[in-house]
Every structure is written in structure tokens, then in C-alpha cells.
Write a structure and sequence with these properties.
379 residues; alpha/beta; Rossmann fold; seven-stranded parallel β-sheet
Length: 379
């Protein structure tokens, strides 16, 4: 199955694994559950929590979605299963009723349980209705020092609605790009996009109702899982860093086609994740441990306990009810790879390093020569 996971070569996974496999890092997968029978997850699952009313527990997966995400993060690839980008990481599953059966209370309960766990990263490959309970749960998780990552959604061609939890100010929203570095046509865009990762539909996923087989999958869900794995690789290499610092390095080292590393595209955020830039080249400034790289607001560290956030509250999670998608952006954006581009996460105006060095490609912005839409980060 790994031969269909094209991004493993592009991201230089084999070289990164010589430095870090994600060992020592725990990732909470808040999803439809994770099937404990997956050969690729043997020995990788830790006890989690079931917030759903469905039969079974968090190690039962009726849709296959959560199992796919777990495998993309930490799977061993055994017996034809998916190979995870961070195969040394551990997975803690938190199940809730996904899709149309979603209940805000269940979603919030699952996130709170993940916040109370030993997981450093909370991976949320889903969209849920906005609710006070969800906002409060996300605040709680952030104050517990967790790194919060969520898919922006696959609705670009169907109204491009803003999806929670990615809409929350303290959650990094993840978009999807294909193997050429171009944002997929389904990847939702707007102010809630912070990073991008591989998520084209040729990436395999567990088939619903046929857990023993794989179908074309991908989407911003897969992109979120791959970003979570990227964070695990970096955190394993730098175990004393905080969630703020891991995320800042992901943002600083992302591949992009513009020079200002503090500006973002409504399609790919700060660019495509490239953990190799930190792991193999030692680049990326982690910054202060207690400042959110998303809002610039001082946050509590895990040792401070759970209470009112420090700072003036500006940009605090939940203080802005939503971030609607921006209009007028180009149809598609290509974040190509170039051996001649700068390795500091920026571009030279003509080419840029995206995932791995070696493949040369020019910056392409489709849509009648429209400019790449940039936005200032909120906060």
C-alpha cells in the first residue's frame, strides 16, 4: 500500500526516519473510532474514550475513517496496510458519532477527553456544527497545552462553507494539495486555512463497510493526519518544546511561493508542511514557548493548569464566532518544488521548495493570471 502513498517519497520519509519516527509522541485521533484489528496498528493503540452511543467502544470503527487517519499517522504498513509518516508515534482513539449523526455534546466530550489524556497532539479530521460546548472544549484543550489540528473541509465546490473545529482561532486549519503541489479543487478555502498537506483522492483510505480493503480516499482529512504526523516527527526530535513551538516551526518551514513568511494564502495558508526542513536541515525558529503562533497571544503552558488565559484575550479561542471564507481568490494555487528555491520556507518569487528538494517547478497561479490572495494572520 505504501507504493500508492506518493508523498512518502516526496517528503523524504526514509531520510527523516533516520532522525525521528515520532517515538515518544502520542496523537489523539478524534474520529469514528480506530479498529484495533488493523495489523498496521498492532501495539500502537492506547486506551482512549468512547463518547458515542454506538455499539462497541473507541476501538470499534463503523466507517473506517478513524482507522485510516490512525494508519496515516502511525501505521506500520504491515500486511498491506497504510504506512504512517510517524510510525513510532502512539495513537489514542476518541470516538464520537461522525457525519449526519453528529451531536455537539458528543464531539465536545471527545475533545475534552482527549485534552485530559497524555496526547500532545489532537488530530481532528472532521467538520462539526458550531456550538458553545465545542468552543469551550477547544479552549479547554488549548489551555492544557495541546496542539490542535483540524481539516478545513472538502466543500470548495459545494458552497465552500467554513467548518468547525478548523474555524476556531486556536486550531490550525489544514487544506489539501496534490502531488504536483496544487491545491485540490475540493479543498475548502478562506481565513481558516493555516497549512496544507498531501490530500489528493489517490491516497488510499479504508472502504466504508469493507474494512479489509482500500478505496480512493484523501481529502483534507488525510492532509490533517499527515500534518499531525509531521508534528509528531518534530516533537519527538524536540521533546522539550511546547505545542506553540512545534506549530511555529511547521508554519515557518512550510513551502510557499511568497517571501513574507507571516502572510498566508486563502488556499494553502502558510504553505505545505515540510518537516524535513527542521529534521534534516535544522531550520525553523520555535520562538517563545508560551505565545500562540496563530494569534500572537500569550498562552498558558501545561504546568500552569487550566484557567483563564493570560494576555488581553484578543484573538482568544472562541472570541470570534466564525471566520467566513474570503472571496476573490484565484481558482487554484500551485506550490511547486524546486532545488533552487530557498530552504527557509520562503520563495524567490519564481520558484519555491515545497515538500522535498530535487523536483524543479515554477510557481503557477491558475485562473486567468489572478494574483495569489494573501491575508494577514488574525490576531
Amino acid at each position: 500500500m505504501a507504493d500508492k502513498q506518493w508523498y512518502l517519497d516526496s517528503m523524504q520519509a526514509e531520510e527523516m526516519w533516520k532522525v525521528s519516527t515520532g517515538k515518544g509522541v502520542k496523537v489523539a485521533v478524534v474520529d469514528s473510532g480506530v479498529d484495533k484489528s488493523s495489523p498496521g496498528l498492532k501495539g500502537k493503540l492506547l486506551p482512549g474514550h468512547d463518547a458515542s452511543s454506538a455499539s462497541g467502544d473507541e476501538t470499534s470503527d463503523l466507517s473506517g475513517h478513524g482507522t485510516t487517519m490512525a494508519e496515516l499517522i502511525a501505521g506500520s504498513g504491515a500486511e498491506g496496510t497504510l504506512k504512517g509518516l510517524a510510525p513510532g508515534a502512539k495513537i489514542i482513539p476518541f470516538r464520537f458519532a461522525t457525519g449526519k449523526a453528529n451531536r455537539p455534546g458528543e464531539t465536545a466530550e471527545a475533545i475534552r477527553a482527549a485534552a485530559d489524556s497524555d496526547a500532545q497532539i489532537i488530530s481532528m479530521s472532521f467538520g462539526a456544527p458550531a456550538s458553545n460546548s465545542l468552543v469551550d472544549a477547544l479552549k479547554y484543550a488549548k489551555r492544557k497545552g495541546k496542539l490542535l489540528l483540524a481539516s478545513t473541509g472538502n466543500d470548495a465546490k459545494e458552497g465552500n462553507r467554513s467548518n468547525w473545529p478548523a474555524t476556531d482561532l486556536e486550531v490550525a486549519g489544514i487544506a489539501a494539495v496534490d502531488k504536483s503541489g496544487e491545491v485540490t479543487d475540493f479543498s475548502s478555502h478562506g481565513k481558516n486555512v493555516d497549512l496544507a498537506a498531501p490530500g489528493s483522492q489517490d491516497i488510499p483510505g479504508r472502504c466504508k463497510g469493507h474494512m479489509e480493503s482500500y478505496c480512493p480516499g484523501g481529502g483534507t482529512s488525510a492532509a490533517t493526519a499527515i500534518t499531525s504526523a509531521s508534528a509528531a516527527l518534530i516533537w519527538s526530535k524536540h521533546p522539550t518544546w511546547t505545542a506553540n513551538q512545534v506549530l511555529k516551526v511547521l508554519l515557518d518551514t512550510a513551502g510557499r511561493t511568497w517571501k513574507d513568511k507571516d502572510s498566508s494564502s486563502t488556499y494553502v495558508g502558510r504553505g505545505a508542511v515540510r518537516p524535513r526542513v527542521n529534521l534534516l536541515e535544522g531550520k525553523g525558529d520555535p520562538g517563545p514557548p508560551d505565545v500562540s503562533p496563530l494569534t500572537g497571544v500569550k498562552t498558558r503552558t501545561p504546568g500552569d493548569g487550566v484557567g483563564k488565559s493570560t494576555g488581553d484575550g484578543k484573538g482568544e479561542s472562541g472570541s470570534e464566532p466564525s471566520r467566513s471564507a474570503e472571496a476573490g481568490a484565484p481558482d487554484k494555487v500551485k506550490v511547486a518544488d524546486s532545488a533552487s528555491g530557498g530552504n527557509d520556507g520562503g520563495g524567490d518569487g519564481n520558484s519555491t521548495v515545497w515538500i522535498a528538494a530535487g523536483a524543479v517547478g515554477a510557481v503557477v497561479v491558475l485562473g486567468g493570471g489572478a494574483f495569489l490572495a494573501l491575508r494577514s494572520r488574525r490576531g
